[in-house]
Amino acid sequence: METLRELCEHTGVSRRAIQGYEKAGLMSAAARNERGYLLYDAKTQDRVRMIKLLQNLEFSIREIAELDNLSKDEVRREVDAHILRLRQRKVEIDEYIDQAYELIEKIS
């Protein structure tokens, strides 16, 4: 078990973000120590990493909470669809970058 500070250090997630996850009901502490500090287990550490990954994939906290109500197969489908949309955006962004370079060449 580890404290909130240690959880933050091990996951690279801020204290404020973890408190936000808790407030949204995405996770909770496993226990408290004798000083009253919240303690988190390895399962919670994995959960924080998963939440952060989903946020990096541009899922909102609300969307992540909705995923919790789905079956594993439904979650896979939702994440796959989301990744497909991100891949399509990546292609569009790459095209914009190419167009920007072309414009720069014309200006030079």
Explain the overall architecture.
The chain has 108 residues and is mostly helical. The chain folds into two domains: 1-69, Multidrug-efflux Transporter Regulator, Chain: A, Domain 2, CATH 1.10.1660.10; 71-108. Helix content is 69%, strand content 6%. It has a three-stranded antiparallel beta sheet. β2 (31-32) and β3 form a beta hairpin. The mean pLDDT is 93.
Secondary structure blueprint with pairings:
Layout: E1 2-3, H1 4-11, H2 15-23, E2 31-32, E3 38-40, H3 42-56, H4 61-67, H5 72-107
Antiparallel strand pairs: 1-3, 2-3
Keywords: DNA-binding, Repressor, Transcription, Transcription regulation
InterPro entries: DNA-bd_dom_put_sf (IPR009061), MerR-type_HTH_dom (IPR000551), MerR_fam (IPR047057)
Organism: Coprococcus aceti
Output the keywords.
2 domains; mainly alpha; 108 residues; MerR-type_HTH_dom; 3-stranded antiparallel beta sheet; MerR_fam; Multidrug-efflux Transporter Regulator, Chain: A, Domain 2
In short:
With 108 residues, the chain is mostly helical. It has helices at residues 4-11, 15-23, 42-56, 61-67, 72-107, and strands at 2-3, 31-32, 38-40. It folds into 2 domains: 1-69, Multidrug-efflux Transporter Regulator, Chain: A, Domain 2 (Orthogonal Bundle); 71-108.
